[in-house]
Amino acid sequence: MAPILERDVLGLIHAPLGRDAQIAATLLKEAGLCAKVAPTLDDLVISLDDRTAFVVMTEESLRWADLRPLSAWIDAQPSWSDLPFIIMTARGGGPEHNPAAARLLEVLGNVSFIERPFHATTFISVTRSAMRARRRQYEARMRMEALDEGERRLQTALQAGRLGAWELDLATNALTTSSTCRSIFGRGPEDDFTYEDLLRSIHPEDIGRMKEAVRNTIETGADYAVAYRTVWPNGSVHGAEIRAQLHRDRTGRPVKLVGVSADITERLKAEEQQRHLNEVLEERVAERTRELEEAHQLVLAEVSQRERAEEQLRQAQKMEAIGQLTGGVAHDFNNLLMAVLGNLELLRKHLAGDVKATRLIDGALQGAKRGASLTQRLLAFARRQDLQVGPVDLARLVTEMEDLLQRSVGSRIAVGVAVPERLPPVSADANQVELALLNLAVNARDAMPDGGAIRIELKEIEHTAEADGLVPGRYVVLAVIDQGQGMDAATLQKAIEPFFSTKELGKGTGLGLSMVHGLALQLNGRLKLTSAPGRGTTAELWIPVSTTDVPEQEQRTATETSAEASPKRILLVDDDVLIAMSSADMLSDLGHEVVEAHSGKEALALIDGGATFDLMITDYSMPGMTGAELAKAARDRLPSLPILLASGYADLPSGIEIDVARLAKPYTQEQLATMLGKVF
Predict the structure, then answer these.
(1) How many degrees, rounded to 5, is the angle at CA 221 between CA 219 and CA 225?
(2) What value does the mean pLDDT take over residues 502-517?
(3) Which residues carry this modification: 4-aspartylphosphate (predicted)?
């Protein structure tokens, strides 16, 4: 609801005898306050509503009146409202000396008394105090409505993420669960589900681990996070992942656990299948190894070579399986972040004057953007991020990043750059190479907690033999060299594995080197690591030399491309209603007219019906008809229609060739405006 302005509210006056009503109305008008005179008490009650700021009445008008209708209205006020009443009493007739006036406090509640005769300044002062009190009530209502809206959005987000909410009272073990939470344990929406039911539903082999996690959270205050198998009433085995935080009272005593639950049955099945596949592969490898040992006892060089090849095959299969799983999770998370980022940005604009709300929203935005950065690393590891490969002047890229790198590693680290005068361009994605260089520099910084130096070198190498996964050819090598703690052979071997990290818990995702490794493979290059304990680490990113030169004309700056486009009529197509609503709000906030469609079929029906649009924005992954198929069908009908394709998977499947602008999810309103500026 829009805020109630002071000019929208008015005071009501009920003083039927003498000139009190006329005098009061005149004084209020001179003070810039709106007022309305109610001749009778019934008129007064009828006129009362949320926009009434205060009521001025004379004591004698209430002495013999039936106050029940007025009392009923007062009792029916919403929780935020306590309407101020100003009672004008006779000389010397204040509540201290006038029991009849004092009894009005019991009926009216929020009462201020003015003894007549009174000075005009006194009257205006009392009415302004009443106005201020009423304004605080309006502000309280807005805060309550904002909290209600926040709760609604939270429930929407929980439903979108298929998360079940729950709360456990530690004093009574009373468990409160949502219907989604109960369904994760095989219960219906109306079924009872106590804490004892929860414990009985956990797989016997996992119950001890669950109880230990609860105990640890209560004793240490650490976040509660555990995954375990569940046994449904029908005997089937499923999986649940539980996360929660500990709440304490004012004395610091733990009082309850509040958290969410998610169904991970499919994930557990996939992990079990992967474990089974690994066991089968290991058995086959072991069997084959035995055969080779028996057949080639006089030859352990050939056997060793075969063992290494089989180990590489097993690792490749494992990495491919993890990559597929990671890419899918990142895609779904990108879609969720799309709705969160868009709504938070718009909410921040609407609450620009509320300092506390802005601070809270900024914190949420930072968390969401960190989540978006994490999904980019996940997609890089899975080799599914969008690569805009072209000729890149690597020397210029490194030189221009020197200041950013120095700020990123801090004043305790010295950054040195060695760049040859002439260096050929490489075939790469400039943005991804920048991210890779930043990751390598941050890793180098973390390896030198007491300070040190990082050296960044570029050199051209002619690779002649096919080895280390590199085909013969010319490469530019980007090397990041630190003076840090270094790694032993075992750590070095695991360094590029996903989620492996030598940093403390909570200080690293273990995806930095995996992302750089994935990027190198996509570019037909290689990430080489050389390290030894106490001797630092050298990370080399090998990138093939480009067959074409860097264009002389530089790309437009972000300021130029993000210029606001004139208002357009835009067709927005997304099967996810939550994301469509968020994107439509961002476009409308930019001044554009938005028409929503939730499937390719619905969008084509609008076009075939004669509707005209300046631009179509469509999601790629939609059931029935993908965004690429919709784009082709729309181009058949309207060849000149600009089309913008958005997707949480930044890469399109192979075999799909379509000339449309691309926008990776999640995107901010600024990124959306920038892309619109490029399209138009």
Answers:
(1) 100
(2) 57
(3) 619
Is the pLDDT at 542 greater than 50? The verdict is: yes
pLDDT top residue among 292 and 13: 13
Q: How far apart are CA 404 and CA 9, in angstroms?
A: 54
Rounded to an integer, the average pLDDT of 597-611 is: 93
How many CB atoms within 10 Å of residue 243? 14
Tokens 């709440």, residue located? 247
Contact yes or no for 535/485 (Cβ under 8 A): no
Domain pair 6-148 / 558-679, same fold: yes
Query: Checking DSSP bridges between strand 175-177 and strand 163-169, what pairing results, if any?
Result: antiparallel
As a whole number of angstroms, the distance between CA 375 and CA 372 comes to: 5
What is 6-148's CATH superfamily? Response regulator (3.40.50.2300)
Residue 562, pLDDT > 50, answer no
Q: How far is Cα 14 from Cα 12, in angstroms, rounded to an integer?
A: 7
Question: Do residues 642 and 612 lie in contact, with contact meaning Cβ atoms separated by under 8 Å?
Answer: no
- Is residue 97 scored above 70 in pLDDT? no
Domain 390-544 architecture: 2-Layer Sandwich (3.30)
Residues 6+ apart with CB under 8 A from 629: 600
| 207 sits in which H/E element | helix 207-220
Cα 663 versus chain centre, distance: 18
Nearest CA-CA partner of 84 in 112, 64, 47: 112
What is the reported pTM? 0.44
* CATH code for the structural domain at 558-679: 3.40.50.2300
Q: What is the pLDDT of residue 1?
A: 47
Residue spans of the domains in the chain: they are 6-148, 161-263, 279-381, 390-544, 558-679
pLDDT, tens digit (0-9, with 9 covering 90-100), for 286-314: 888 887 777 766 657 566 666 766 766 67
Asked if the bond preceding 95 is cis, omega within 30° of 0, the reply is: no
- Tell me the pLDDT tens digit for each residue of 435-468: 788 888 888 888 888 889 999 999 998 888 766 6
Alpha-helical runs (H) found in 382-461: 394-400, 402-409, 430-446
What whole-number distance in Å separates Cα of residue 674 and Cα of residue 658?
Answer: 21
Distance CA 483, CA 533 (A): 10
Share of the chain above pLDDT 70, in %: 80
The band of 505, judged by pLDDT with boundaries at 50, 70 and 90, is very low
C-alpha span between 517 and 443 (Å, rounded): 14
Contacts of 578 (CB under 8 A, 6+ apart): 156, 160, 339
Q: What gap in Å lies between CA 292 and CA 281, rounded to an integer?
A: 16
Q: What architecture does CATH give domain 161-263?
A: 2-Layer Sandwich (3.30)
Mean pLDDT lowest among 139-148, 397-406, 499-508: 499-508
